[in-house]
Design goal:
Elements: H1 2-25, H2 35-49, E1 54-63, E2 70-73, E3 76-79, E4 84-92, E5 96-104
Antiparallel strand pairs: 1-4, 2-3, 4-5
Length: 108
């Protein structure tokens, strides 16, 4: 019985840590330079990703290096003219992370 109580308490603590991480730590505040791209990514998120049970947030924005501007799409080498990439994370019920994707600036 005592061992069961310990597991339940540990599970509750882990759940609260997940809530704190999902709501407070995973948020991203853009710099002045990143702000236009941040708003662009937010509009894409609202348009394509958010749904009834799925909430998507921007986790990180990073300036692209020259090497990162070249990528392969269906075995074809493509170069983007954008300067930034954003990492977005999808959450089930706004709480449980289940997927991460990258959005490149200048790519439709």
């Amino acid at each position: 019985m005592k061992r069961d109580k310990i597991w339940v308490i540990a599970l509750i603590i882990l759940f609260f840590l997940l809530v704190i991480k999902s709501f407070f730590i995973d948020g991203y505040m853009p710099t002045k330079e990143e702000e236009p791209f941040y708003h662009y990514v937010e509009s894409i998120i609202k348009e394509r990703y958010d749904g009834l049970f799925i909430k998507t947030r921007i986790v990180k924005i990073k300036k692209l290096t020259e090497k990162e501007k070249v990528y392969y799409y269906k075995d074809v080498k493509v170069k983007t003219e954008g300067e930034y990439k954003a990492k977005i994370r999808k959450y089930l019920f706004g709480l449980i992370p289940f997927s991460e994707e990258t959005i490149l600036e200048g790519v439709k």
